[in-house]
Amino acid sequence: MRLTTRTNLAMRTLMFCAINPDRIVRKSEVASACNASENHLAQVIHMLAQKGFLRTLRGRAGGLMLGRAAEAISVGEVFRVFEGGLPFTECFSESENACPLSGCCRLKCALAEALEAFYIRLDRVTVAELVRDNSGLEGLLKVA
After folding, report:
1. Nearest one of 78, 88, 83 to 10, comparing CA atoms
2. What does CATH list as the number for 5-141?
């Protein structure tokens, strides 16, 4: 299993904002700290804002901040937003499934159960837990 770049950037952005809770952060600061292109990051920030994970402010003094408390954002919820629309495997997609085994293959059920267990486990982790008492991460992401 491999996470998409968008999911990875989403988590980095949320952690950046959680490490810097008392200020409006700029997209360029996040991009620099997270080694990301601002264009790609803009798409991720837009989706995070649409789903209420971030609040964005336009204009000269604009930027972004968490849309709700870091304790109220579960990693599983973020992963579902960014990964949920992508079928884990070909047979999970009704429109693109060309597997000749799908009618009798039991692997699909095992994979579906494993994927649900993955998300359930991530539901128990919040953004706050990822950043709390994490001096290494703070050293990398804290804006002076």
Report:
1. 78
2. 1.10.10.10
